[in-house]
Write a structure and sequence with these properties.
Structural class: mainly alpha
Oligomer: single chain
Distance between the termini: 41 Å
Largest sheet: none
Radius of gyration: 21 Å
Length: 415
């Protein structure tokens, strides 16, 4: 399988995940704020993405079970993609203004489906990609995801403003159908072999033992704590900037342009640069440098929030925060892949990804309460302080560590 085919396959799969996630995290908060929901309520809706945090619980199934004729990973991805389309069509018949509970439950189901698809997709990526390909491949992953978020968040805000709820949901469903075409034509067994060659059948009987072995590896506790703190400040800031825009008189179309053209657009460019960084430089050292840059970028939200409001200030902060975050995310994901064990790719990667999502979910959920209690000014100052604390911890936790199972074993021997 050549590089162009891999790029197309993974770009479409991660686009399919970013599409509904972008709508839920970017468009829906604006929609709900315009419906006069409180900041705490908007922050609380972030709990509906809990399937992304809990997916490690069922991730071992994706390493163990599948339909031989389809291939291990396609056995999960294809049915889940189809189910996502069905759920979005269902949601199109219920507007949040009249059926908010039904819509939120449906989005919870949608997140459950997308998170499960992500488990199989990440496993396929680790199985299919050589170690030297993981830098650019994670750039494709984050880039495809970001494009999906642009389409699902910013573009859907514009669609909502001009054509309404049902058209936006049906447009997302149509995009998912198109994004499913590469996986339909991908012949997994021809590339990776039969399932029996991919799956160690003894794994079926030892999921808890596998988890304990992964957690017991040298320096793993430090690494998992890095995953907890690394994206929290950025997430707490980005969750509240959209309600702040609503409260300061920006329209749906303006917010769509800011979060999409400038926000997700700069994130996409950051992902491309992150692919280069992850391929050319030591990932562990890069993560320390990027932790500093990420905190500085997030702190720029203080410029529009605490001084006189001007759109150029919002654009500057949005571009810097999302751009640096894109670089950091690609580098972080590539480092996570390096820590996966052979034949445990879905389980190991998903556990790490779940920890990142748990951290981001809690940061989003608490950000609304923080903004209501402290005000926008106090909230963004607190977020900056959290980011500074994260820099200190990441610098200590990654000191002397290297990526990969072999490096962990060496560190354990030195200890």
């Amino acid at each position: 399988m050549n590089r162009a085919e891999k790029v197309t396959l993974f770009a479409c799969l991660y686009f399919a995940q970013g599409l509904p996630y972008g709508f839920f995290t970017q468009a829906l908060p604006v929609f709900l704020r315009e419906a006069n929901l409180s900041l705490a309520q908007i922050g609380g809706t972030s709990l509906l993405i809990l399937p992304w945090a809990l997916k490690f619980l069922w991730a071992p199934l994706a390493d163990r079970y599948g339909i031989p004729r389809l291939g291990l990973r396609r056995s999960w991805i294809i049915p889940l993609q189809a189910l996502s389309v069905v759920v979005l069509i269902f949601i199109s018949f219920f507007e949040p203004s009249n059926s908010l509970t039904i819509v939120l439950i449906a989005f919870l189901v949608c997140n459950l489906i997308a998170a499960s698809q992500d488990v199989a997709t990440d496993g396929l990526a680790v199985d299919l990609l050589k170690k030297e390909e993981r830098g650019w491949a994670n750039g494709i992953q984050v880039g495809g995801y970001r494009i999906g978020m642009i389409a699902g968040g910013s573009a859907m805000l514009i669609v909502l403003a001009h054509t309404g709820w049902q058209a936006a949901m049906l447009a997302m469903a149509a995009c998912l159908v198109i994004a499913s075409l590469p996986i339909l034509f991908f012949r997994e067994r021809a590339v990776l072999g039969e399932m029996d060659r991919t799956v160690d059948r003894t794994l079926k009987h030892r999921p808890l033992t596998d988890l304990k072995e992964f957690l017991a590896r040298p320096l793993m506790t430090r690494w998992l704590l890095v995953l907890v703190v690394y994206k929290a400040a950025h997430q707490a800031a980005s969750t509240m900037i959209e309600p702040w825009l609503v409260d300061n008189g920006y329209s749906l179309a303006e917010i769509g342009a800011l979060t999409g053209l400038f926000g997700s657009g700069s994130g996409l460019l950051g992902a491309a640069l992150g692919a280069w960084v992850a391929s050319r430089f030591d990932k562990t050292k890069s993560l320390v440098v990027l932790a500093v840059l990420q905190t500085c970028a997030t702190a720029t939200y203080l410029l529009p929030v605490t001084t006189e409001n001007a759109i150029w200030k919002v654009i500057l902060a949005t571009v810097l925060d999302n751009g640096i975050s894109g670089i950091a995310t690609v580098t972080l994901f590539a480092a996570m892949m390096d820590r996966c064990r052979p034949k445990h790719s879905s389980s190991d990667y998903t556990l790490q990804a779940s920890i990142v999502v748990v951290s981001q979910t809690l940061a989003s959920a608490l950000s609304g309460a923080s903004a209501e209690a402290l005000g926008y000014n106090g909230h963004f100052l607190a977020v900056t302080a959290i980011g500074l604390g994260a820099i200190a911890f990441v610098t200590w936790a990654l000191r002397g560590s290297e990526a990969g199972p072999e490096a962990g074993q060496k560190a354990g021997q030195k200890a």
